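Hi there, hope your week has been kind to you so far. For a while now I've been wondering how a particular protein folds. I'm sending you its amino acid sequence along with the backbone structure tokens. Could you read through the record and tell me how the tokens relate to the sequence? Take your time with it, there's no hurry, and the full record follows here.
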Amino acid sequence: MSHPQSECNNHPVSLSTAKPLGYGEVKSAKHSTTLPRRNGRKWSLKDIDIGKKLGEGCFGSVYLAREKESRFVIALKMLIKEEINTQERVQQIQREIEIQSHLKHPNIVRLYDYFYDKKRIYLMLEYAPKGELSKELTRFRQFNNSRAATYVYQLSNAIAYCHQNDVIHRDIKPENILLCSRGEVKIADFGSAVHRPASRRTAPFGTLVYLAPEVMDPESSYEHSVDTWSLGVLTYEMLTGCVPFTGDSNTEVAARIQSCEFLLPDSVSSDAGDLICSMLRKTPELRIPLADVPSHPWMRHHAEFSLVRCTAALRDWEDPSTHCAQSSGCCSFYFTDPSSSETSSTVDVTAQPDHLP
């Protein structure tokens, strides 16, 4: 893997030497808008103030941090080397660094740089002050049309950009979408991402309820359109507060995904339902191209296509009184994918699904 920070630091620094940093300091500090260039000098923890923990990951934690000289605020992802104990995990981290460091899009979290010492690998990431989309969904339960459509617009552009650069994210879900202060969203966590090869992928991945049918079929293979499917699931979730395919076990959830039959609540408009259905087609080739998503009628009627208008709408979005009433889980009609000949029983949209083991 080729990267400017390809050599090991010879002088690891204990985390205890880093100066504590509170969120209040970040808000009041006069900090740079860019991370300074290193001119060949390697980063180390001596260069960084460490603040509060922002979240946990599979191999470590993410902290609020600040580069000392410029006061540039970042999210510092610390990966514990002992946890990266197989060749597969090593390759996963290598892919994450290689892919994310080359992606530059306003709706994708930037990976500015990385460094490491004897115990940890440190990823210097763009900081998104409002945290995960999943927490905002928990707060509001569901979003109004304007907010959901605007997020779908931004995400469809970002995912299309990934695909243009031969990258499949493979794990689009609320926990991997971060919110920024001006109303924009950013895709994060490229740990499951891969470069799209000449041959189609077959290895399973991701979180069960967001997986496309072809991912779970051992006789099938998949390409970039698995991200379109996941975006369809996310769109449904933002509008209803639940995912379309649920069940009491992983086996039941997988069967319902394979059948490609789900229910749309009364609160979902016909235009929104049409877009969701166009993304949740069992046959990958029949899914709506991401380039066509912004011109869909629901998007044209509800999405804010400029950051200025997005920021202006933020106050209304964050006012609970403007959001739809909480969904009761009662649904009025089935959607059955015409490309699927299978049928399934009624889906309990209030059930809590499990993740893949």
About this structure: The first strand starts at residue 20 and ends at 21. The chain has two domains: 45-125, 131-318.
